[in-house]
Design a protein that fits this description.
It contains nine helices and seven strands, in the order ααβαβααβαααββββα. By secondary structure, the chain is α/β, with parallel strands linked by helices. The strands form two sheets. It has a five-stranded mixed beta sheet with strand order 1-2-3-6-7. Strands 4-5 form a two-stranded antiparallel sheet. Strand 4 and strand 5 form a beta hairpin. The model has no long low-confidence stretch (mean pLDDT 82).
Length: 189
């Protein structure tokens, strides 16, 4: 392709030479790709010589995939409905117990089930046993910090209002608190 472009351009400039000019006019580039496409997108992002911050969606929440693309995506920021820090003792305990009981690693749905079951057990422990009592309990629950995510049950909101803003940095995924995010964005300006 490079030879073809050189041969057909007026100034004999090829594709490789045009990518030597860094693109600095873009602050961030949102790439809501699926997990399996990150390995394709990340090298292309670097090849294009973009100095913009890579921004991803919920499918980017996979440390193994990001570590394989670390040279291209170090510092990337993405959002996720859940975040399971590998160093969190409650998470590690849950994973170990789940593996012992099932001989498999838990997926996201297993953790959601664990969180919901804990809420229902709390409701029953407080004497809420009819469906209307449990619904009332859930509506009054407010924000619930479960394993890996925060969620709430409300008649006003049909979508979970909590979201994790995460950053992949030096091989690890970190949850960025709003104050940390504000400082990070100010430092880059």
């Amino acid at each position: 392709i490079d030879r073809y472009v050189k041969r057909n351009s007026e100034d004999r400039t090829g594709v490789v030479e045009t990518y030597d000019i860094p693109v600095t006019s873009i602050d961030g580039l949102f790439m809501p790709t699926y997990e399996e496409d990150i390995a394709i997108v990340a090298p292309q992002y670097a090849l294009s010589n973009l100095s913009a911050k890579a921004l991803g969606g919920d499918y980017w929440n996979n440390g193994d995939v990001l570590r394989k693309q670390r040279s291209y995506l170090n510092g990337t920021i993405f959002i996720a409905g859940n975040h399971f820090p590998e160093t969190d003792l409650a998470y590690r305990d849950f994973v170990n117990k789940f593996r012992l009981a099932t001989s498999a690693s838990p997926g996201v749905m297993a953790i959601y089930g664990y969180n919901v079951m804990n809420i229902l057990i709390d409701a029953v422990d407080q004497g809420k046993i009819s469906s209307s009592e449990i619904i009332e309990y859930l509506e009054g629950l407010g924000d619930y910090q479960g394993l890996g995510n925060e969620f709430s049950f409300s008649r006003e909101h049909h979508v979970n209002q909590a979201v994790n803003i995460l950053q992949f940095q030096d091989g690890n995924i970190y949850n960025i608190e709003s104050e940390e995010l504000r400082k990070l964005l100010e430092a880059e300006e």
